[in-house]
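Service request form, structural biology core

Requester: graduate student, group of Dr. S.
Request type: structure prediction, single chain
Budget code: on file
Notes: please return the result as structure tokens.

Sequence provided:
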Amino acid sequence: MTAKEIQKVIKNQNNKILEVVRGEVDEMSMLLVPQFQGAELLCAKYVSDFAIDGYRFIRSKFISEIISDEKNETLSFYNRVYAKENLGSYPNCKYNCDTFRKLFEELAKSGDAVTVECNFEEAIDYYVGKVTDLTGNLATMQCFDGSGVLFKDKIRVNLDFVSMVSLGDRYTSTMAKYINW
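Core staff response, request fulfilled:
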């Protein structure tokens, strides 16, 4: 889908859960509440088990379909629960960036922990940590593994391969809290 097509679909879906499919990247769809659509990115609240679990910045070109509750009974039910549980009161994302370059600039300043998904022809890689620098099209990250161990060397991430950034989610935030930075 193009950025314009995405904008058209989400335009009248104010604070509603939508199912977003990234067929080229992932077999699983995501439940999201869109925040804004920029030139390159869709920013949304991520919905997991009837709760907001942080934010996702998704490269628009990888979005193949967006399904609304008008076409899906399950989403209609989720949106009723979402409204009754007042999940819409979850704060909007503080990053209002329409490109990964702008987002990574802000992340380098903030020191917020993130999970970065990179899509390559043969594989998908995930990097969890903090963005420490941005030079040209390369972001430098201090990453850690699932055991809470910091990598000895920093990772360089080419922004051209980034397909999604997650931040403020329970996994990344909790792990980062216990890392000996």
